[in-house]
């Protein structure tokens, strides 16, 4: 079961970022916004299936700038007045991977339109989509996560017999790790690859068309060297 | 608006409800008490580590009980001088008693003990076909005078000799003398010059190699770093696979990659850059469809990171201008330079698109070169007039791809050749008209 599956990868789509609210009347010079930084499953599934803990490294001016979150949902809320880069280090369960993964995100408090008024109700949201890829996972890991909704798992070639997976969700756990009913979920963005794929396919077609044209032109020129030479020989 | 931005002033002095906005990219945060933000910023956002002045001391103590200190202008001499010069300086006098002792800096007047040989010793042990007695004498005299500062000695030496040659001669003589004078070889075997004699050829080679490394371009440096990182990873995975029970990659594959990597590492240690430029292409382009070895070795990585690596690998054969043109083309086509939703398929499509654009640009250039050649042949007898109207095209992808041989010929011929890929094609063409500095999209002559 500790054998690794060659040429197999399991990926976990994630979204990470920040949501920041202006404090309005309650804002002071050193405390103008409250914000939350988080890493969630892209479809709001529980990342605790692979992530053991997340360590958020804040600006050194914060007390205890190293904040450890031991369970999903992996998030941290704070308040302050400045924008800075937050480093997020993900630690995985021992059967997943012994290496950590680092993410970096710039906390944004102020809206793009600098001259517009700030609103207490509408936060500044910056979310980034990415995927955590585990290449050549062990059979054990594959078996464990193959049916988990947070995971994208390829179909294995037939002939590979894995034991049936364990229970998918630990419903008995007190704290839910998924973010489907997260208080901030109205601000979560939806990431769909469809638009991007469409654009890319169109672009590729376009480029391929021109490549073809150029190749034809080149072959035409290559095929008619005498014409130009004859002209210069006048 | 921007000025206010820079000064950190509030944008709208008007609305009283709006909070004073700090500059958008403000990095410093603070949560202290009773200290102004600006003061904190002066110290770099941190409190001072140690108290600098005890305020209570400023008021109370007058230092009445200690010794009486005065300062006097007194003469002094230094044992480091041989000319008995008397100078004066301020001296701290305690209770009327001036300090005694030598000038405090005299102890720093150190010099090197350069060996001195007799005529006999020279004849017996120190003769060398490459060095005359006179030269050797002069060398040793300079060594004594300049405390073995060989750069200066080389400069002052009357005959043309390199620093390494001088060092070699000095150390050889010293070593030979040491061995000759020692009662037994064992006595001096601990001496560094005996243990490790100066090796001139090695030194010359080492310095040459250093200067090669120093003059490496950034690209070469990057490639070196990549290869070393890969080699390290492969070594680590080999170690890991030896310890663990896992059956990872088939052994022969590790063997191949390992030998490739060690070959790279060795060629780096020999600082032979010729090897590097030819062999860097191998690892990244080994697998186009499946993940390259370096990514698999990571075990866990972000999809965006993987895409970056593969894009870099694809760009490694192209020049900086070409890469910029690829980016510009992507933008023109309405494609994000970094995908917003980097799923596996999006990344794969993105990578393929980039490669196809590279192909397109290469073909464009080829076509231009051929057509320019053709028109050079045609217009060989005519000189290029400086008033040739400049073509202001290349506005977008579509137009730049429309073949226009007359236009090509008129504009292309005569452009100074500064590309590395097409040497000598336009050597007989007169200088080109001045080009506009406006940012051009997909100018076919670029890259």
UniProtKB/TrEMBL annotation, chain A:
GO molecular function list: histone binding
PANTHER family: PROTEIN AF-9 HOMOLOG
KW Transcription (keyword) present: yes
Domain YEATS span(s) in chain numbering: 4-148
Gene Ontology CC annotations of this record: NuA4 histone acetyltransferase complex; nucleus
The species this protein was found in: Musa acuminata subsp. malaccensis
Protein name: (wild Malaysian banana) hypothetical protein
Gene3D superfamilies recorded: YEATS domain (2.60.40.1970)
Domain of life: Eukaryota
Subcellular location: Nucleus
Chief subcellular location: nucleus
Keywords: Nucleus, Transcription, Transcription regulation
Signal peptide limits: none
InterPro entries named among the record's database cross-references: YEAST_sf, YEATS, YEATS_dom
A single BP term in Gene Ontology: chromatin remodeling
TrEMBL record, chain B:
InterPro entries: DAMP1_SANT-like, DMAP1, Homeodomain-like_sf, SANT/Myb, Swc4/Dmap1
UniProt-recorded Gene Ontology molecular function terms: DNA binding; transcription corepressor activity
GO biological process: chromatin remodeling; DNA repair; negative regulation of transcription by RNA polymerase II
Positions with biased composition (Basic and acidic residues): 18-35
Membrane spanning residue stretches: none
Gene Ontology cellular-component annotations: NuA4 histone acetyltransferase complex; Swr1 complex
Start-end of Polar residues biased regions: 377-390
Subcellular localization(s) per the UniProt record: Nucleus
UniProt entry keywords in alphabetical sequence: Chromatin regulator, Nucleus, Transcription, Transcription regulation
UniProt-recorded name of the protein: (wild Malaysian banana) hypothetical protein
Native source species: Musa acuminata subsp. malaccensis (Wild banana)
